[in-house]
Amino acid sequence: MHRPITFLAALAIPVMTxxxxxxxxxxxxxxxxxxxxxxxxxxxxxxxEGDVRTxxxxxxWVAAQNKVTRAYLATLPGRDAIKARLTQLFDYERVTLPExxxxxxxxxxxxxxxxxxxxxxxxxxxxxxxxxxxxTWAKDGATALAEWSASEDGSKVAYAIQDGxxxxxxxxxxxxxxxxxxxxxxxxxxxxxxxxxxxxxGFFYSRHPATPGGKDFVSAVYDHEVHFHRIGTPQSxxxxxxxxxxxxxxxxNEAETSSDGNWLIVxxxxxxxxxxxxxxxxxxxxxxxxxxxxxxRKFDWRFAGASxxxxxxxxxxxxxxxxVVAFDNAGGTPxxxxxxxxxxxxxxxxxxxxxxxxxxxxxxxxxxxxxxAGKADGEIAxxxxxxxxxFDAVPGxxxxxxxxxxxxxxxxxxxxxxxxxxxxxxxxxxxxxxPADFVVEQRFFTSKDGTRVPMFVAHKxxxxxxxxxxxxxxxxxNINVLPAFQVDALAWMEMGGIYAEVTLRGGGEYGAAWHExxxxxxxxNVFDDFIAGGEYLIKSGLTPKGGLAxxxxxNGGLLVGAVVNQRPDLFAAALPAVGVMDMLRFPLFTEGRTxxxxxxxxxxxxxxxxLLGYSPYHNIRSGKDYPAILATTxxxxxxxxxxxxxxxxxxxxxxxxGDKPHLIRIETRAxxxxxxxxxxxxxxxxxxxxxxxxxxxxxxx
Length: 701
Known about the structure:
Elements: H1 4-11, E1 33-36, E2 39-42, H2 56-73, H3 79-90, E3 94-95, E4 99-101, E5 104-110, E6 118-123, E7 129-132, E8 143-150, E9 156-163, E10 168-175, E11 181-190, E12 195-196, E13 202-207, E14 225-230, E15 239-243, E16 252-257, E17 263-269, E18 277-282, E19 291-294, E20 301-307, E21 310-315, E22 323-327, E23 335-338, E24 344-351, E25 354-361, E26 364-371, E27 376-380, E28 387-390, E29 399-406, E30 409-417, E31 422-427, E32 438-446, E33 452-460, E34 469-472, H4 487-494, E35 498-502, H5 512-516, H6 524-539, E36 548-553, H7 555-566, E37 573-577, H8 596-599, H9 605-614, E38 628-634, H10 643-654, E39 662-667, H11 678-695
């Protein structure tokens, strides 16, 4: 057991220079302005949208900003102690959900401080052995094993390689018995699954057409296609299975196959919304073609499994909180199997002769069982308040695997047998803390318009309040933010802070209506919820005035930027990460065009005026004291291009918004977050926690 007293004592070393005004690097401006719907919109930092790989002035600006940020962070008290404790907390074995194929079980394992997790395979009852070790691929640890899938017989694994955090992938294939990497080499892959055909001859995947100029890491990309690759053949021989019509070139098309290998399902959407067209193909019939099952992109459709020619889906068609339906004979009008309930239905899968259905009840997991005809058959017992995930079918068996986690409970994996409704531990972590030392509770508060909004609050037992608090939020794209163990949150709690996570509108925790209430012209509701959450923490006595820090990433980075502009007085510190900060130009870059379903399209006047009203980059207001801000991004992020954060940071530093630091930390050879090496994660968290620790008073004694 560690010694918290020693840890906290180390944090209390006084360093007076942390509060001194900062001399920021100069940032050139350009006389750039657009007139949109009669409104002049200035954009003096547009040149910062350039790619650091090709534009030296942008690369020089990044270097200058990082130099100032590193110098400032070095003045903060306790950073070395925070980093040391984070290293201890990260140093435990982590195993991902297994995939059972043939007589083999595959899973990823990290011994603790490995930069990348290793893909392991267990042959029958033999000890697990390493199959793919990405730690050997790059000296800086920034080349990662991304998506992977084993063939139905377990003889081969197709795996994707991610370099420097990019969304682009290369797919290779390895022979499991020999460990030999085969000649198959697939390029131009992006946002793709790997879906094996049932006869093990090859797999379906998604790619973009090759372009003469090579891959573009900034501009928008189109024509996402589903292809079939036969093992042992060149990519040029791959068969294109589906591509969208010319009118829908921006659609994303993903493939999956049923657990019995007999059905191909292709889902088509704009990429970030939750409405799909569905196409299917009977792979057991050589003469069968891909046919349309759901022609209109109006609702969410998630494949749950197949039983013969009956296909099961989870959908919000006619059910805002979702239901399970079945298409008999792979067509016609679907019949209801499990109806909509008070809890939000999030997923379903066929395990043996049972339908396992996951639901959210006030943003915490409840897992129910049904017969394939829809008759209720009890629940799967879970360890407590938290999040259960997994339940993917294992072909030809009544078993599956699932995970359970909560803020104070590191992810434990279970093997579940549907025939007996019993769970046994597959893998349980051994951690350097006692989960019983922490408490997790769910509270509710009222937002500006009277909406009841949940919040999870976690901290050490016996903590004297008010205490400095970190509040996290996302609120968008129908994405659920659920209780889960996070080393960084635990470290903050060990330091004596409170960790709060708000279930904001815009997510999917309460179904389609909850999502709708936080998208497009309703986006201000998300900001109002987050602001109300901060006010509640202070009014309830949990958080002192001047002791509230906020954090969010991607869409959550937009959230943080927006609420800081609207209520700078409420927050002591802010951590906007990889945020969408220019709400007028986001559709112009990489995947940004797909976000208009959630944000609205700035090419439409009503949406333009709404977006301009909260865009973080455009609404920084001089004359108000802003909280301390440390924005983070990566110079090669090709999801939310770093130009968003670059322009935002430049505008902050140029504004008259007080003497607190307004800095940007720019990671190199990293992307939007996935694949980031453990060592880089530890360094970044140590910087963030020492920053907000100082400005919330947690480490400034």
